[in-house]
Design brief:
The protein is an alpha+beta fold. It contains 31 helices and 37 strands. It is elongated. The relative contact order is 0.04.
Length: about 1000
């Protein structure tokens, strides 16, 4: 400790004499922890630095400095007493204990594997899986073996002992030491540079976990069955690395280190950072010593040396006589040398002192010098320390012989300044300080700092300057890098597209960019004096103040506000602020983006949206009008055809009437397709999510379409898998629409064969229904497959001429399926039929107590059902043909029918007569149906009448019509054209109810495909 103490004391005094930076606190002592470099030093330094910091935190007044050394460097450092603690592998510890007499064990490392403690390790012997000639250790005779080095217990010594026990001495193999880390051994074996590799346990497992080693390529030799040990192993196990204190470490310090190490918890951040499980009490390293002894490795690789005790035991009497003679001679000589010794001690003390200080000067990382500048400008170095060889690349003697060698090193731009500073300091005899650039003889550029102080000298004599020169190149480079980084950050901030600012809690600006000055017109001085609130007016001040408080409370906030410039102009900005800590004080860093263009764009988009909505409304109104104008006469045509089909007709009349009826329904389908597609494109299409049975829906649809297939001589088969849920959520009417469309196309384009439908669960997508409709029809050419889903498009023009259609059905079907979160696609070959597939999410629900069955489709004339009671019906319809049709529909029923030509007549009729059912058209002259309904409902309330069942009758078929009818007070809603049986079913349902006021709870909306 004494030499280190004097060295530190001298360095501290030199720093004070040279006027350097403040010394480190005298109470803090630096101690060194050396760790064996088992991997690249940078990696080992990063891993074990947290342990050094941990020990520093637990040793008040001491700082632990970490050194990463290889075995040679560590042994040299121990021999020079340059380290205090050692963490190394066990065999290296045995070697240094025997050779250098290092101190005692403090603790043993506990590693970890998958979070579990591992107290021991061993060696692994491995070869490539393809080397079938290497099965046992005996097969290693004459083979090449890769290992890290001779000092490694887990990477060489443990395996070498196993070979020796197996009768394979090291002399019979070809060793190749590749050095640390162990990864290089694995690479040597994989590259074929060695037959076998020696590595420590856990290395192969780590490489396999990292994905850099395929475990199937490796075979472990001499594998040891060790239950509970987490790694493959080929040798005995040995205790983990020891942590050792040197003999000079004070026992109290060593005790605190032991306490800190043993107190480390496996969950401690230090343990996690160093990837260990902690430390335990010192293990028994005698097995390690036995390995080294048996292999005759250092320090047991030399013959033993006889001690003096051995010689004494053998030659005791002759030596006793010789020693007696020596004692007598020494006693006489001592009397003669006593005086000479007293004189020599003084000289020796002076010599030792000079030698000690010279040794200190030689080890200081800088040039210590004595220098004199004479009045005539002549200057001399009286002493230059040896560090000049490293700093100046010049011998001290050369500088002392001629100072021009030093001056020639100075950069030309600094030379004149240094001369002037040197002369001024010499004349005024004050402390000297300067920083200059030099260029060494080898061409290296450096920065040096020169500090010196003069000694007292007579007035007429030049002073002796003692000083210190040290290399500050690294510091200058860091300063330069910091300056460049600061300039880069400034340029970066100034180049930002928006304004940038940093303000404190008082709202004062600490930093801002040029853009802020440009936008506001304020200069740098004005910005420094301003606050954030100076740039806002009116309500924006309140918003900005609130957002600033929000940043400092919650960490982040954003808002829009207008920035006010010096000239009063305002610019809308979007501000984002985030809280940061600067020099332990909370600040707000933020940016503002000019959103003037965005605001203009929003205004333009708003106007465009309003125009689009107006256009959409106009389109909707047009479609509603067209729907009404077309459906109203078609209602009469189809209705009259239905009525005529129920009468006796000749075969020719029946054929012509059926043709007319089919053409009318085809026209209605075209109208419905156009309306559906328009609603989808306008984004006004409404889907419902209600419980329904997929199985029932498929069976009903197949039953409906089987008649159309039978008319063409086709068979139609529907299959539903057993695993299909009983009830799912969705819009069954739209699913039915897609299925009918696909069935209709399949029947239309198939002349012979069959049409089949399958409903299964998608094999790759769980909770997804897969629908498949397959036909044996004409098929689709490959180049036309995707085009068939485009609107108004069919496979080719011949299809349209031969089969008819608008080309909207598949386009609508795909849109509907996509709106229901599914996919629709086709697989087809020309002339061999087609298969259409679509998927829908199966959202299962608990089956409700009562799942209402839908009305089965009715084919052909249906005899009218006998209602529960007769109804007094008021028909409000302005079209005479519809009145005639309605009379024909109920002609064979017991109901009584009264006509009204518009809403005015209807209200007058209701004032005079009580009606059970009122069927009213929506569009009529003088007073429409909805207005009439509202007045009738008011009349019922005023006269305390039981409300009649009001059925809205419309040809619009547009989205929202049902809701409008309900809002007006209607109970039911029917869409033209109305089939006779539909009307009779609704009337029968109303008649069957005892409480007519509840009739509105049922839905009678009808839609065409």
């Amino acid at each position: 400790m004494a030499p280190l103490f004097w060295i530190k004391t001298l360095l501290w005094m030199l720093c004070l004499l040279a006027g350097g930076i403040a010394p480190v606190c005298a109470n803090e002592e630096t101690m060194t922890l050396a760790v064996m470099a088992s991997r690249p030093k940078v990696e080992v330094q990063q891993r074990w630095q947290p342990l050094a910091d941990y020990l520093t935190a637990h040793l008040p007044g001491r700082r632990i400095r970490l050194l990463v050394l290889n075995s040679v460097e560590m042994e040299e450092a121990v021999s020079h007493h340059a380290i205090d603690f050692i963490l190394t592998n066990p065999s290296h510890y045995i070697q240094m204990r025997q050779m250098h007499g290092i101190g005692g064990l403090l603790a043993t490392l506990v590693s970890q594997a998958n979070g579990l403690p591992v107290y021991a390790f061993g060696g692994v012997i491995f070869a490539l899986q393809e080397r079938t000639d290497l099965a046992t250790l005996a097969d290693l005779h004459g083979k090449s073996i890769a290992a890290v080095d001779e000092v490694s217990l887990g990477g060489f010594q443990a395996q070498a002992l196993e070979l020796a026990h197996a009768g394979v001495p090291l002399a019979d193999v070809r060793l190749r030491f590749v050095g640390q880390p162990h990864d290089q051994v694995v690479r040597a074996v994989l590259d074929g540079e060695a037959d076998v590799g020696f590595v420590r346990t856990g290395v192969l497992d780590a490489l396999m976990r990292a994905g850099t080693l395929d475990g199937k390529r490796i075979r472990i030799l001499n594998a040891q069955p060790l239950p509970g040990f987490p790694f493959a192993v080929s040798t005995h196990l040995y205790p983990e690395w020891p942590l050792v204190a040197m003999t000079h470490v004070e026992p109290s310090v060593a005790g605190r280190v032991v306490a800190a190490l043993l107190a480390m918890d496996p969950g401690d951040p230090v343990a996690k950072a160093t990837q260990i499980n902690g430390f335990t009490v010192p293990a028994n390293y005698e097995p390690v010593e036995e390995v080294v002894r048996e292999l005759r490795l250092p320090p047991y690789n030399t013959l033993p040396v006889f001690s003096f005790a051995d010689i004494w035991n053998r030659y005791q009497w002759p030596l006793a006589l010789l020693l007696w003679s020596v004692v007598v001679i020494l006693a006489v000589s001592g009397l003669l040398l006593f005086k000479n010794r007293q004189l020599a001690e003084t000289s020796a003390a002076l010599a030792r002192s000079e030698k000690r200080y010279r040794r200190i000067a030689e080890t200081v990382p800088g040039v210590i010098y004595d220098y004199v500048l004479y009045p005539d400008g002549h200057n001399v170095f009286f002493y230059v320390s040896p560090f000049s060889r490293e700093l100046f690349e010049l011998e001290p003697e050369r500088l002392m012989a001629d100072t021009s060698h030093f001056w020639n090193l100075i950069h030309p731009d600094d030379l004149v300044r240094l001369h002037e500073e040197d002369m001024a300091a010499s004349q005024q005899k004050h402390s000297f300080f300067s920083e200059v650039r030099i260029t060494t003889p080898s061409g290296r550029a450096k920065w040096i700092q020169i500090r010196s102080r003069p000694t007292q000298a007579p007035q007429d004599q030049p002073a002796l300057w003692s000083g210190f020169i040290f290399d500050i190149t690294e510091r200058k480079e860091k300063d330069d890098a910091l300056r460049k980084e600061r300039d880069f950050i400034r340029r970066l901030i100034d180049s930002l597209p928006g304004i940038f600012y940093l303000i404190n809690q008082d709202g004062k600006f600490c930093l801002w960019n040029k853009k802020f000055e440009e936008v506001t017109g304020f200069g740098a001085e004005e910005m420094a004096a301003a606050t954030a609130m100076d740039f806002f007016r009116g309500p924006d001040c309140v918003v900005i103040a609130e957002r600033m408080r929000e940043v400092f409370v919650h960490g982040v906030a954003a808002t829009e506000a207008s920035l006010v410039a010096r000239d009063g102009t305002t610019t809308p900005f979007y501000f984002v602020g985030r809280a940061i800590e600067l020099e332990h004080r909370p600040c707000l860093v933020g940016m503002g983006l000019d959103i003037s263009e965005r605001k203009q764009m929003e205004l333009a988009l708003r106007e465009a949206k309003e125009q689009a909505e107006a256009a959409a409304q106009a389109k909707g109104d047009f479609l509603a009008a067209m729907s009404h104008e077309i459906r109203t006469p078609m209602n009469v045509v189809l209705g009259m055809a239905d009525v005529l089909l129920e009468t006796r007709l000749t075969p020719e009349q029946n054929r012509l009437l059926q043709t007319m009826h089919r053409s009318g329904k085809a026209l209605m389908r075209v109208i419905s397709d156009i309306l559906d597609f328009s609603r989808i494109e306008a984004g006004r299409f409404v889907l419902f999510s209600l419980p329904f049975s997929p199985r029932q829906m498929v069976e009903e649809t197949a039953h409906l379409m089987r008649i159309a297939a039978a008319e063409k001589g086709l068979s139609l088969v529907a299959q539903v898998a057993e695993e299909i849920p009983d009830v799912v959520l969705g819009d069954d009417e739209r699913v039915r629409q897609v299925l009918i469309n696909l069935f209709s196309n399949a029947i239309k384009f198939t002349q012979h064969g069959r049409v089949s439908m399958q409903l299964t669960v998608h094999p790759q997508e769980p909770e997804t229904l897969l629908f498949q409709v397959t036909d044996t029809g004409i098929g689709i050419a490959s180049e036309q497959v995707e085009h068939i889903f485009e609107r108004f498009t069919q496979a080719d023009s011949g299809v349209t001429r031969r089969y008819g259609g608008t080309g909207l059905g598949l386009a609508i079907s795909r849109k509907l399926v996509e709106l229901m979160d599914g996919r629709l696609w086709v697989a087809s070959q020309l002339g061999q039929g087609s298969s259409f597939f679509f998927t829908l999410p199966a959202r299962p629900v608990e089956r409700p107590p009562l799942l209402l069955d839908r009305i089965q489709p009715v084919v052909g004339p249906i005899p009218p059902a006998t209602p529960a009671r007769e109804l007094n019906i008021l028909l409000v319809e302005d079209v005479e043909e519809n009145q005639v049709l309605f009379e024909a529909y109920i002609a064979q029923t017991p109901h009584r029918l009264v006509m009204a030509n518009d809403g005015v007549e209807a209200v007058a009729q209701v004032q005079e007569t009580l009606f059970d059912v009122i069927v009213t058209d929506v569009q009529m002259p003088r007073m429409d149906g909805y207005t009439a309904t509202q007045q009738i409902r008011q009349l019922e309330r005023d006269r305390h009448r039981a409300p009649a069942t009001i059925i809205a009758l419309t040809a619009h078929a547009m989205a929202g019509e049902k809701e409008r009818s309900q809002a007006a007070g209607c109970d039911l809603y029917l869409t033209k054209p109305i089939r006779k049986q539909e009307l009779l079913n609704v009337l029968q349902e109303v008649a069957n109810r005892a409480d007519f006021a509840k009739a509105g709870s049922a839905s009678a909306e009808t839609s065409m495909y």
